[in-house]
Amino acid sequence: MSNHFSAAYLKFPGDDARLDLTDLFAFPASGDPGRTVLIIDVNPFATGLSATPPFLMSAELHPDAVYRINIDNDGDNQADAAFSFVFTEADDGRQTGTAYYATGADARSAEPTGEVLASAVPVGFDASAQPVEAGRCRLFTGVRSDPFFADAEGALHGFAWTGDDAFGDKDVQCIALEVPDDMLGPDPLIHLWATVSVRRDGELVQVDRGGQPTINPFINPDYAKDAYNAGHPADDVAKYLGPWSKILEGNGYPPAEANAAAATVLPDVLTYDRGRPAVYPNGRGLTDDVFIARMTFLTNGKVTSGGVMPHDDLLPDFPHLGPPHR
Fold first, then answer.
1. Distance of CA 260 to the CA centre of its chain
2. Which residues pair with 66 in a beta bridge?
3. pLDDT digits over 79-131, tens only?
């Protein structure tokens, strides 16, 4: 998995698939070097059980959630810009969303604040959904083919690869933005992470987060996953460098090398320097084999391939993810 099923014991955060962040992507816009594509995907398989009776299968976005892309552009692991997304209650197969853009102190607020880029944006539930203009950005929200690819069964059974892509025919809910680079900060180098929060008793509670792919599900033990999801990158080195170094030592790293390796993925942010080619670990494209990159990392180079290829339904233009399977 990338960040799919990221709560303890491979469950959904808050037992609700709509709150499960699966992936974060950042790469140049096609045909425009002055723009960047940012994508967050949620709701693994887009058929998760809802959290309330009658527990119907749901492909909607959570109406009490705030989905957010956080951007640090000065290296202090605090958000200097943020794109936030909220959605209405789904009604008879219809749902709409509002997108916000915040900077400075507003970007560090848990609430969706700042400039409204677009409102009443339809959420797509079939292949007919199209991007919309959102101020100076382009925005897409809707069910799409999951671009993540991995032989998950093989990884869970001693790297005995089956050749089966567990995500080849699965869908996710996609929130995609194409933004002018100046909205990300004055310098080419930025650090990104995504968060999902849900309102409980009037307060927003963060239930999932991620910057680096394939971190929480494979590195943290089950007892630590939920607390990790509620955390913040600024605290990651102090909290996790020691424990993760020990885990890597158990995977065959010498102690000094284990500490250095753990430091390469802490804090849990995705680094993207727009002045360099966008290939993970610099940004993340839709065809980057991040799963095998993480397995190589976890095994100290013992696993270097997995036999599963990128999906062939990706589109050359925004929003780039293929149409939904269902």
1. 25
2. 197
3. 999 999 999 999 988 999 999 999 999 999 999 999 999 999 999 999 999 99
Cα gap 205→201, rounded to integer Å = 10
Alpha-carbon span 195 to 200, nearest angstrom:
16
Walk across the sheet containing 137-145 and list its strands: 21-29, 32-42, 171-180, 137-145, 132-134
The pLDDT mean for the chain works out to 94
Please state, for a pLDDT cut of 70, what percent of the chain lies above it.
96
Give CA angle at 33 (30, 36), nearest 5°: 70
Tokens, residue 248 = 């890597």
- Alpha helices by DSSP H, listed for 115-232, are 152-155, 216-219, 222-229
Question: How many whole angstroms separate alpha carbon 113 and alpha carbon 110?
Answer: 9
Which of 211, 216, 220, 214 lies closest to 303, judged by CA? 214
**Does the pTM exceed 0.70?**
yes
The Cα 266–Cα 122 span in angstroms is 36
Query: Is there a cis peptide before residue 319, judged by omega within 30 degrees of 0?
Result: yes
Cβ atoms < 10 Å from Cβ of 309: 11
Hey, which bits of 43-136 come out as E strands?
Answer: 48-49, 57-58, 65-72, 81-87, 96-103, 115-122, 132-134
Residue at token pair 């916000």: 100
pLDDT at residue 130, as a whole number: 97
Q: Residue 60 corresponds to which amino acid? A: E
> Are 229 and 209 contacting, i.e. CB atoms less than 8 angstroms apart?
yes
pLDDT, tens digit, 9 for 90 and up, residues 9-53: 989 999 999 999 999 999 999 999 899 999 999 999 886 544 444
